[in-house]
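<discrete_fold_record>
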Amino acid sequence: MSLRPEFEAALRLFAQISRAVVAQGYPAPILVGGGAVELFSVSAVMTGDFDISVARQDVFEKVVVGLGFVRPSGPGIITRGWVHPELKLGFEVVSSNLLDGLADHDRVVLIDLDDDGVAAVISVEDLIADRMGQFASGAAPEMRAQARQLLLLHNNVDRVYLERRIREETGSQYGIDDINARSA
């Protein structure tokens, strides 16, 4: 199984954006959210956008505009992000600090995409914890299924770190054992 072509093209474009941001002296943007889920699930869970954590949104946005991204507009359009006309995938800055500073930056995964550059991606442990945090909020019950799928695909996670991070994201309401629970 491999990544769907549109997603891989978007990931390569993200690496190019990252290279340009870093070349200006700023930290690399980090892929989080549904885009990271799609990557770690090898497109078993698909997304329509890339959520990005980046220290300097203004720098990031100048780069994406330079690469042909546009901000959608018109009746019924409520996106805060940018869309590349050929990819039809949106890129949206969702934070300036990775998981409000709770995620360990040393765990960020760097994916070398050859000539396109390097894509920085949230760790699978922090991603699972984030999914469980969203589940615990009550607003996104489907997120536990995503956490479950990610844990099944990545059973070699750092379980001590994951347990701590789930507890942090859920106000100690949930832990690793709750990922596979069937009832709320």
About this structure: The CA atoms of residues 24 and 59 lie 8 Å apart.
